[in-house]
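Review form for a predicted model. The reviewer records the input and the model, then writes brief findings.
Reviewer: anonymous (R2)
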Amino acid sequence: MKTIFLTALLSFTLAGCAEAQNNASADADGSKYVPYEQRTGNESVVYFTRKLSAEGLIQAYEQVCDNIKGHVGVKLHTGEPNGPNIIPREWVKALMEKDLKGANIIETNTYYKGGRYTTEDHRKTLETNGWTFCPVDILDEHGTTTLPVAGGKWFRKMSVGSNLTNYDAMVTLTHFKGHTQGGFGGSNKNIGIGCADGRIGKAWIHTTPGQPNQWDKREEEFMERMTESTKASVDYFEGRVCYVNVMRNMSVSCDCEGVGAAPVVTPNVGILSSTDILAIDQACVDIIYAMTEKEHHDLVERIETRHGLRQLSYMKELGMGNNRYVLIDLDNGGRRITAKEAAKGLKPFVQTK
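Model under review:
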């Protein structure tokens, strides 16, 4: 196992790592959910539709796309071979053909050995999974670059796929679900892990150098490292980025687990969009918590046991957005609703192809 990431670990000392002198404060406990009424600060706008379809995806995106211009990268988790829960290809194809002509899907190679570990294998997996209707740019195929992390606790810079800087704007198209280490995978995880290159950046986030456990960074420290990685990429685009989260097929497992993902038991919800990364991930988490105990038990357990809520509090500490928001119901004339209303009347999950 050491040989998988030895090079990355040796290069760790070049990361400009700024290790914190103190642990996260008690109010940053990533296992404790903070209800909406206990939050403070401004509100951002988050749009919501129950239409889990190409039509719904297009509608959600078109609310937040004003600053998406020039050469656009669509950051998408394209999944391991035959992964059952990824965003349907036909939805993404319809969106790109209508609103994102000339854009590329952007991805990076993985830190673990699997169907996307090398560029050659990654290309085969893309074909298997049907991502053949537009160019897919594997950002670290030709090398890496670093982007600054402003105000970071763990890093002063993050290593990303070098091709990321070829883009003028980024659309973050995220399958919201659980995650083995992150607790949940929203836009923060999609960018923080998904733009970090497969050998160096991901090692900086996941691994303490000089010991054999590739995945030893956990709980609050892991959430903070991942979030700082996200901030580096988001800051690079200087506002030319938007976020769309698809709450569908929400296994407690990440799409990295492919056909080995845990069965889905959480109901499908809908699609959210925003120009505020914290607000959209927070809204998705709030909708999960607003479900019935039976509906959300597995996913809440996954989030809290991994201390995943630290993603949200740390994004706020870093000034990445607001954890209060106005949730706009696109299906009902654009009226403001609560997370509880968005979670009302959900149907039990049924697996479809």
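Findings: The mean pLDDT is 92.
Further findings: The chain has eleven helices and 13 strands.
Recommendation: see findings above.
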